[in-house]
Inverse folding.
DNA sequence: TATTGATTTCCAATTAATTGTAATATATAA
DNA sequence: TTATATATTACAATTAATTGGAAATCAATA
């Protein structure tokens, strides 16, 4: 979340009002007032999405897009003043993800920004949808598509975090991971929290999937190192 | 995963940009620049889905489609430049699975590609009940043709949206869908609305089909992920 | 084409569930 | 036994889902 957006438009008034409105929505917004500046800004900021005007002095939007696309894949929404340009945007040029014709309402702009950011996120994880998706071990069945775990055919309710932790450990069964690794892989690179969080989540997971006889048979502690999922 | 897609379009610029964008989504994409080349490419590659332009020299899209359909069943999405062609695509019953009119946004194209691939996956996967137009679960009866839902033999009045949402969820019972997926599938590719709309529609649907005892037995929330229709 | 009613959407307040933190207890190995 | 690592617990903070109501849109009918 808190996506970074770059607005490239030579009409300062427009760039600024767009910035204002997107910031109101909670995005981090930068602006650039011509094409060259825009290309530079992309390099510095590495935004999650760019809003790019076509008609600009020095370097026009198409050129900027071309340069962006040589290196980056984030969505780019083009702003076009004339209907004729639409065909160009969609058909001939280099991979704009979406476009809006001026004049546009802020409501529409924001909706499109959201939709395009959403698409990125969604394709990231829904692509794993079809990979082999069921892991079994003893009486545990982990269904990665359905986000569901069964123990001797009884459904176990795991929270998302618990599920993702189990999923990560189980897909690399018998391999020990340090808490740091788990934080990075399951919680994400940006995560800054306490390392003991892992212990607690492991604990909650065990409570749900282990037999509760004091022995753990799935998630094993490797003292001084970390945890692993045991699979015969 | 990693589906193979073949793009057949005589306008190289378009074929290439489509290729670029689909590759960004993780597909393996090949291109062919006229109809004959296209037919050959199909034979060589055996793609999982074809995107096929109608207006082409040598062999037009209709002809290509006919030849493809003599041997293969994978989905074909037709590209049409003019509205008039749409009728033809639909009317001729040649077996196009979907069509998009130019100009189109990449967002739309990708959404349709995904939707068509997903459809195929389901019908391969799931049991032959798939073609059934009546779905039953506990005391619910959903008649897909008649747009009618009964609960213990009493007709329940659903609005169109509610019905389509229920229909989509119920035809892929026990599979979790994110709100993004539901927006795309039920509301349509070009929908730019608020994501919470899904929640609200789910709620109205529940109000009508669930028992009203605080427990939901049909439409289940998978926290942090989305919703699914539960069927024993 | 107005008018009215139904549907749909948007928004945000409320409620519910999850997750993180910190403090304490327990186990383990030197 | 002591020092260190891990497990457990309770509570606070955070995040997500549900809900109600207002506003906008759509559709039917006068």
């Amino acid at each position: 979340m808190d996506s970074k957006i770059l607005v490239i438009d030579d009409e300062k008034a427009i760039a600024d009002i767009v910035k204002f409105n997107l910031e109101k929505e909670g995005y981090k917004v930068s602006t650039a007032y011509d094409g060259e500046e825009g290309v530079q800004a992309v390099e510095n900021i590495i935004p999650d999405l760019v809003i790019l005007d076509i008609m600009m002095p020095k370097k026009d939007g198409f050129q900027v897009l071309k340069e962006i696309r040589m290196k980056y894949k984030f969505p780019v929404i083009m702003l076009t003043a004339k209907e004729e340009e639409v065909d160009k945007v969609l058909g001939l040029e280099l991979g704009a993800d979406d476009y809006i014709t001026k004049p546009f309402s802020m409501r529409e702009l924001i909706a499109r920004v959201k939709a395009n950011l959403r698409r990125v996120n969604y394709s990231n994880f829904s692509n794993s949808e079809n990979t082999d998706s069921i892991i079994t071990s003893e009486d545990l069945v982990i269904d990665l598509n359905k986000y569901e775990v069964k123990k001797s055919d009884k459904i176990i309710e795991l929270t998302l975090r618990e599920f993702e932790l189990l999923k990560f450990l189980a897909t690399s069964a018998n391999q020990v991971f340090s808490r740091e690794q788990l934080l990075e892989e399951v919680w994400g690179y940006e995560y800054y929290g306490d390392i003991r969080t892992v212990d607690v989540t492991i604990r909650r997971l065990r409570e749900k999937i282990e037999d509760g006889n004091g022995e753990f048979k799935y998630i094993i502690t490797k003292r001084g190192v970390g945890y692993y999922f045991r699979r015969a």
